[in-house]
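Worked example 3. Consider a protein that binds S-adenosyl-L-homocysteine.
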Amino acid sequence: MNNKINLLGLSHESLVDFFHNIDQPSFRANQFLKWVHQRGCLNFDEMTDFNIPLREQLKEIASIETPKILESSLSKDGTEKFAIKLNSGSIVEMVVIPEENRNTLCISSQAGCALQCTFCATGAQGFDSNLTSSEIIGQLWLANNFSTNKRKITNVVFMGMGEPLLNYENVVESAQIMKDQNAYGLSRKRITISTSGIVPQILNLPNDIDVSLAISLHAPNDDLRNEIVPINNKYPLKELISSCKTYLKSFTNKKNITIEYILIKEVNDSLEHAKELSKILNHLNCKINLIPFNPFDGCDYERSSDQDINAFKSFLMKKGFIATVRRTRGDLIDGACGQLVGNLNKATKGKKLIKHKQII
Ligand code: SAH
Ligand code: SF4
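Given these inputs, the predicted complex is written out as structure tokens:
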């Protein structure tokens, strides 16, 4: 370990402060962002538009450190899951999901999660630590430089391990780097923060960053949601939905938010639930993304039948909602939503992998 400042996770604003502190002009920040995030350079010696004394000084006081890839597994559908080792020794996972017109990275914001939703493998594991901004943006850097498909990431979703709004500052700073034209230049529509509903931070977001927001709702009434998404006991549905409306009003350019709703057999998937859901979402501008439950060891829930999923979706569409069903990707490598645990033994369930390699 050293006391050098890791520049990887600093946004433009933080880099300007850093360079000012060593009597350097502001434009150094953009030069640095381009070297690291656009050209993939992690070595001060290669930054040829920095003079040699500056490079030497940077080597003395700063570092550019990504988290480390421990291993990766590639699914037949092209989905690739990476186990990432943090400085603290904890392991998190990220997943690259290629599609024809986009290449999405699902990243983790925390090692584990404290919120204990009953359908989530990460929640079952408990909370370990918050990722630093370097560890969050480091996942995007690694995916761009080491994915087997060699494609650049076009979309980022904070839907890996952890609750992003409980690691607010680091998530915001890393998202600022994602949006920065001198770094990744991803538009606000191509970055999605998914939250189980941390109301005060939903209300804060418009002051700090403009990205897309997805709410993990999963139940249409407080009784059921208190049980399966326990944070609902603290921020009940009425408050949550009202915070979403306030959030949307804070932007002039935002049409809607996404409502995520897992479908779990005989828990939340009846037409009565669909009816309740349509009522509580009635005056909220949203599109609804239905997620068939992804099973994992130690959880008794089952995925709803295709027939029930379609009936649920049709009901919502008849009520005038935009409703889609999320295609499950990467489940053969335990890389689908809610299956991420950062557990190496699980990540290497040999027979399911068609490839398994050591990268760094
Ligand atoms: N903590 C945040 C983001 C990570 S979870 C949140 O809860 O939104 C990302 C998405 O995966 C959420 O919508 C979550 O509810 C969903 N998810 C969790 N476990 C799942 C499972 N077993 N099957 C399908 N989706 C799951
Ligand atoms: Fe945490 Fe999200 Fe999993 Fe709930 S669904 S336990 S908030 S990661």
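Take a moment to read the result before moving on. Residues 344-360 have pLDDT under 50 and may be disordered. Residues 119-120, 159, 163, 194-196, 216, 260, 262, 291, 293-294, 337-338 surround S-adenosyl-L-homocysteine (ligand 1) (CB under 6 Å).
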